[in-house]
Amino acid sequence: MHRFFVSPELLAQTQTSRPAKRRVMLPAAVAHQVRDVLRLTLDEHVLLLDNTGDEVEARIVHAGRSGVEVELLERRKGSGEGCLRLVLYQGLLKSARFEWVLEKGTELGISAFVPLRCQRSQVGLEAIGAAKIQRWRRILQEAAEQCGRARIPELLPVRNLRQALAELPANALIVMPWEQEKLLSMRAALRTRQEQVQEALLNGSLTVALFIGPEGGLAPEEVALARERGALIVSLGPRVLRAETAALVAASNVLYEYEHMEKHSRETA
């Protein structure tokens, strides 16, 4: 079933599981996708999402030049979201690479993205205008629709490392891969605080802050600052990865380890 994010106002009156078959007109951009791009026909079903974590199943009852009207059938909890809140602090990259991280990170399950200004960031990359922000938000939305998520990941303002560390919740687990770390593996680090992590997962309150450096890597002073804040400085293996590759490899490790742990904890609770 095709999925589309719409404004919360469109579905505001649809608070019960059975919305009494209320009819609404789809926004013009969504109607264009339904009618002209996907060529969906009468009686086909779509899922509408309002970024609350729920999804509303709807049936197409009219599709013409005047617009597309759907009948709302059922509201239910959406899929694709877990209890883990994974925030990626990504060292600023050239546009195409950063956009790739946004798209693929959304597919993996990252909850929020923060562009990170680092000592070795290329000059000029921090100049992020309104048009670029709008484009990035559109990439996040389209990726969330494609991969079956019920929420669009947040895109937060640019931060430097000191600001980012200061704004983190006190109980956040901070993970920072660094190519010069040779002893502590990512897997071993994620299992060092197993009891704390399991309890937080069961309570739905675990935040993992993942810091990835820019193309030039993180400076030793930045790593030292993060270590003072309690960050786990980890290795991703013997090979040096590109920044965008490191982001997805590290995120995959976190999500696999902790989503598996959450499932096991709930089954045995």
Low-confidence stretches: none
Rounded to an integer in angstroms, the radius of gyration calculated over CA atoms is 21 Å
Give helix % range. 25-40%
Task: Write down how many β-strands occur, each being a DSSP E stretch of 2 or more residues.
Answer: 12
CATH hierarchy, class of the largest domain: Alpha Beta
Outline type? globular
Strand content: 15-25%
Superfamily (CATH H level) name of the largest domain: SPOUT methyltransferase, trefoil knot domain
Major beta-sheet overview: 7 strands, parallel
Supply the helix-strand structural class: alpha/beta
The tally of domains stands at 2
The ordered H/E elements are EEHEEEEHEHEEHEHHEHEH
- Spatial separation of the terminal alpha carbons: 34 Å
CATH fold name of the largest domain, please? Answer: Alpha/beta knot
CATH architecture of the largest domain: 3-Layer(aba) Sandwich
The average pLDDT value, as a whole number, equals 90
Total helices: the number is: 8
Explain this structure to me?
The protein has 269 residues and is α/β, with parallel strands linked by helices. It has two domains: 2-77, Beta Barrel (Ribosomal Protein L25, Chain P), CATH 2.40.240.20; 85-268, Alpha/beta knot, CATH 3.40.1280. The protein contains eight helices and twelve strands. It has helices at 28-37, 95-108, 130-147, 161-167, 186-190, 194-203, 220-228, 243-268, and strands spanning 2-5, 23-25, 45-49, 54-64, 67-77, 85-91, 112-117, 154-155, 159-160, 173-177, 207-212, 232-234. Strands 6, 7, 8, 9, 10, 11 and 12 form a seven-stranded parallel beta sheet that branches. Helix 6 (194-203) packs across helix 8. The protein is globular and about 60 Å long. The mean pLDDT is 90.
